[in-house]
Design goal:
Pfam families: FmdA_AmdA. The chain is an alpha+beta fold and 336 residues long. It is built from four helices and 19 strands. An eight-stranded mixed sheet has the order 1-4-16-6-14-17-18-19.
């Protein structure tokens, strides 16, 4: 088993997809053990640490990487299987910001109402108990929320030498902020440049669909990813697979277009897998599909389209990459 471990120094964190060289080269079939910092770079540690005071804008939402996958070329697909995602600290934070979030005026939605107050919440993370403890800022209310660790940001370098801020989701991946990106899930990303140059970050101890206030329970993570390369198979938008479901993503503004992109990708993907006519696949997906919401706050919004694999007649997906990577991940966990 080929295992690579990487813990970036603060100055080695990346804030874009594309626009910087790889931090290392790995072969397909490698297990990568990585540390990822939270979206504030670990600088917001208490309720008194306002991001506007302790963070350097626009240096938010750092990712670990990018990693060059040997043999990856445009037109291929990277398969990244999340073997494990574990909070690296016993605390996490969330916040509201002026002019950011789903329920406030923003730069693109101008309002005469006052902007929201900048407020920080600190959560206690108890990995052994499997909970994140919420504490209200005004009053004594507290409640334990189940841990559901996931990564808000994963992606590859965009095409045409473009560099995109990590906060922006698009066809290359990026800050999709879907709780579906948890351990046990394989994400498929189309390769745009030699080596793919994938990176991962923005760990969340848990997050509601939509990330409505603009931040989740933001946490540093110790994450293990199994990497595979599917040659000669393209992927137009990031796709996800777990043991029971297939999922397509779409990121755009307005939200309806993100919805349409994800649904279009899933319908055409289902048609390719089953050999169905496009309209037959459209009818099938319309009756069995779900539409989980990713982020509704960032520069682009993200929607998912999700269907159970059981209704697709046992079609092989990406040469059964998910099954192989899941087996590799289980072997890794058994040998830890």
């Amino acid at each position: 088993m080929n295992i690579v471990s990487y813990r970036p120094a603060p100055e080695e964190l990346s804030y874009t997809f594309g626009g910087r060289p790889a931090i290392g080269r790995i072969k397909p079939g490698t297990i990568v053990e990585m540390y990822t910092e939270d979206c504030f770079g670990g600088r917001v540690r208490s309720v008194d640490d306002l991001p506007s005071s302790v963070c350097d804008f626009p240096y938010l939402n750092p990712v670990t990487g990018p990693f060059h996958v040997e043999g990856a070329e445009p037109g291929d697909t990277l398969a990244l299987h999340f073997v494990s995602i574990e909070p690296a600290r016993d605390w996490a934070v969330s916040a509201t910001f002026p002019h950011f979030g789903a329920l406030t005026g923003t730069h693109a939605t101008a309002m005469l109402t006052p902007p929201l107050e900048e407020v920080v919440w600190r959560y206690d993370i108890d990995v052994k108990a499997g909970v994140a403890r919420y504490h209200a800022r005004k009053g004594d209310f507290t409640v334990e929320l189940p841990l559901d660790p996931m990564h808000g940001t994963v992606g590859v370098a965009p095409a045409a030498s473009e560099a995109r801020m990590t906060i922006t989701p698009d066809a290359h991946g990026g800050n999709m902020d879907t709780p579906e990106l948890r351990a046990g899930v394989t994400v498929y990303l189309g390769v745009n440049v030699e080596g793919g140059l994938f990176a991962v970050g923005d760990g969340h101890a848990r997050q509601g669909h939509g990330e409505v206030c603009g931040t989740a329970v933001e946490a540093a993570m110790n994450t293990v990813v199994a990497v595979e390369l599917i040659k000669g198979v393209s992927t137009p938008w990031p796709r996800l697979e777990d043991d029971a479901h297939l999922m397509s993503t779409g990121s755009a503004r307005p939200l309806e277009d993100a919805f349409r992109i994800s649904q279009h990708d899933l319908v055409t993907w289902a048609a390719d897998l089953t050999g169905l006519d496009t309209l037959d696949a459209y009818q099938l997906v319309s009756q069995i599909g779900e539409a989980p919401v990713g982020n509704v706050c960032d520069t682009n919004y993200t929607m998912l389209a999700k269907i159970p694999k059981a209704y697709l007649g046992g079609s092989a997906v990406y040469e059964s990459a998910h099954e192989r990577l899941r087996a590799l991940g289980r072997r890794y966990l058994a040998e830890r």
